[in-house]
Design brief:
With 431 residues, this protein is an alpha+beta fold. The protein has 20 helices and eleven strands. Bound molecules: adenosine-5'-triphosphate and magnesium ion.
Length: 431
C-alpha cells in the first residue's frame, strides 16, 4: 500500500519536473483518507497522452481515446489520464466525446461522487472542490452536482452509488435516492456485464445486505437491459412496495411477511460470494431454474452458476421431506449434486440457522457419493453377469450406488457383484 502510494507520488513528481500538473485522484485518495486498502492508483495530469509516453520509459497505450496511458514503474501499473471534460451523454451511458482541459477542478467536476472527486498533490495538499471530505466524515454518498442530472448522463452511476453506500455503510442522501428512483428505467442502457460486475462486487463487499436492500427497494431490477426472470422481478417488486424504507438504518425490517428478503441480514456472515448469492436467492424464494436463468443474463460462468444453483437445488430437494425422512432426502441430494455442493449447502444453512444439525455428519458417513467411488467397475459387472456391455451398466451402477450410499450393502467387490446378480435376476424376471 505504502509502496503503491509513494510510487504514484513519484510519477506525479516526475510529471511536474517535466512542467506538467499532476495529482493522485479518485478512488485511491478516498481510500487513503478512510484507511481502506488501495488496489490501484489513478493519476490525472495536464500532460497529453503522447507527452506522458515521452516522459516515462515503459508505458502502454491502454486507453488513448480517453486520454489514458498505463505507466509501468518497478513492476507496478499506474493509470495516467489527461485532465478531461465529458460532453453530451446521449445514450445515458457513455459521453459522446471527451475533450482535454488544463484544469484539475474541471477534471474533478466530471466525476461521479464528491468523495471520488478529490485530488492529492505532491505538496500533500488535497484538492477537494465539492466537499468530498465532508461527505466521508458525514458518511453520505453525495453526487458532484445535481444527482438527477448525473444519473441521467450515465446510468451506471446509480449502481455505483449503491455499491459505495453499502461498501462504506454510508447513507444515500435523499436527493441521491430520489435521483435513482427517477432514472431507474435508464438502467436499460447499461450492458449486462456491467450490471453483473457491480452487483457481484456488492455481493463480495462488506455490505451485501444494505446493497441488496437498495437494489430491490429502488425498483432498478425491473429495468435491466435483458429482463431478469419473473420470480426475481416479482420478489423485487414486492420488496419495493412493502419492504422497509430507504433509510440505511431501517433496512432489513420488512413491513410485510411476503416482502422480506428472508436471509438479507445473514449475508455478511458468509464469507464466500457464491454462498451469499445462494442465500440471497433462496431467501427471495427463487428456484434453481430461475437462478440459472438469472446467472445466464448476468453472464456468470457456467461453473459459478452451477455452484450457486446447486446449493439452491439441494435446498429445493430437501424441502419436500419431513423431519422423519429428511436423511433420505439428504442422501438423494448428495448423490444428485455431489459432495462439494453438499458441503456448500451445509455452510450456507449453518449461517441461516436452519441447520439440519446432522447433515455434515450424515455426509461423512456416506461411504460413496458417486459411481466412481464404487469398488466395482462396469466391465467387471459385464464379465461377472456374462452380458454384453450396454446402457444397462450405467443403470445398474446407479442402483448399486444408492444401496451403498444408504448403507444397505458394503462397498466391496464381492458384495457389489452379488448384489448386482440379485438385482439383474429380479429385473430379468420382471422384464
Ligand atoms: P473502486 O476501484 O474501489 O471500485 P474507484 O472510485 O476507484 O473505486 P473506478 O471505477 O476505478 O472506481 O474509477 C476511478 C475514478 O473514476 C472514480 O473514483 C471516479 O472519480 C471516476 N469514475 C469512475 N466511473 C465513473 C462514472 N461512471 N462517472 C463518473 N466518474 C467516474
Ligand atoms: Mg479504482
Amino acid at each position: 500500500d505504502e509502496v503503491l502510494w509513494s510510487g504514484g507520488l513519484g510519477i506525479v513528481r516526475k510529471l511536474e519536473h517535466s512542467g506538467f500538473q499532476a495529482y493522485l485522484v479518485g478512488g485511491c485518495v478516498r481510500d487513503k483518507l478512510i484507511g481502506r486498502s488501495l488496489h490501484d492508483i489513478d493519476i490525472a495530469t495536464s500532460a497529453k497522452p503522447e507527452e506522458v509516453m515521452a516522459t516515462f520509459a515503459r508505458t502502454l497505450p491502454t486507453g488513448l481515446k480517453h486520454g489514458t496511458v498505463t505507466v509501468m514503474e518497478a513492476g507496478r501499473a499506474y493509470e495516467v489520464t489527461t485532465f478531461r471534460r465529458e460532453s453530451d451523454y446521449s445514450d445515458s451511458r457513455r459521453p459522446d466525446e471527451v475533450e482535454f482541459v488544463l484544469d484539475i477542478v474541471e477534471d474533478l467536476s466530471r466525476r461521479d461522487f464528491t468523495f471520488n472527486a478529490m485530488a492529492f498533490g505532491s505538496d500533500g495538499m488535497i484538492v477537494d472542490p465539492f466537499g468530498g471530505q465532508d461527505a466521508l466524515r458525514a458518511g453520505v454518498v453525495d453526487c458532484v452536482g445535481d444527482p438527477s442530472e448525473r444519473f441521467g448522463e450515465d446510468a451506471l452511476r446509480m449502481l455505483r452509488a449503491i455499491r459505495f453506500a453499502s461498501e462504506f455503510e454510508f447513507a444515500l442522501l435523499p436527493d441521491v435516492w430520489e435521483g435513482i428512483i427517477q432514472h431507474r428505467q435508464k438502467l436499460r442502457n447499461v450492458a449486462m456485464e456491467r450490471v453483473s460486475a457491480e452487483w457481484d462486487k456488492m455481493m463480495s463487499g462488506s455490505g451485501p445486505e444494505q446493497a441488496n436492500h437498495f437494489l430491490f427497494k429502488s425498483g432498478l431490477l425491473a429495468h435491466t437491459k435483458e429482463a431478469l426472470p419473473d420470480s426475481v422481478k416479482l420478489a423485487a417488486e414486492r420488496y419495493r412496495l412493502n419492504g422497509s424504507t430507504w433509510e440505511w438504518d431501517k433496512w432489513g425490517q420488512a413491513t410485510s411477511e411476503e416482502a422480506s428478503l428472508g436471509n438479507l441480514l445473514q449475508l455478511p456472515m458468509l464469507s464466500e460470494p457464491d454462498h451469499r448469492w445462494a442465500a440471497l436467492l433462496m431467501g427471495a424464494g427463487i428456484n434453481e431454474e430461475d437462478g440459472a436463468e438469472l446467472f445466464r443474463s448476468l453472464r456468470f460462468s457456467g461453473k459459478r452458476s452451477d455452484r450457486i444453483t446447486g446449493i439452491m437445488g439441494i435446498n429445493e430437494m430437501l424441502s419436500v421431506y419431513d423431519e422423519n425422512s429428511v436423511r433420505t432426502g439428504w442422501v438423494y441430494a448428495v448423490l444428485d449434486y455431489g459432495r462439494a455442493a453438499a458441503e456448500d449447502w451445509c455452510t450456507v444453512n449453518e449461517i441461516l440457522d436452519e441447520t439440519l444439525a446432522d447433515a455434515r455428519k450424515w455426509l461423512k458417513e456416506m461411504p460413496v457419493v458417486s459411481v466412481s467411488e464404487l469398488n466395482v467397475r462396469g466391465d467387471e459387472l459385464a464379465r461377472s453377469l456374462d452380458k454384453p456391455p450396454g446402457p444397462w451398466i450405467a443403470t445398474l451402477l446407479e442402483e448399486l450406488l444408492e444401496e451403498v450410499a444408504f448403507g444397505s450393502i458394503p462397498n466391496d467387490k464381492d458384495s457389489l457383484l452379488s448384489a448386482a446378480k440379485q438385482a439383474r435376476g429380479t429385473s430379468n424376471e420382471q422384464g
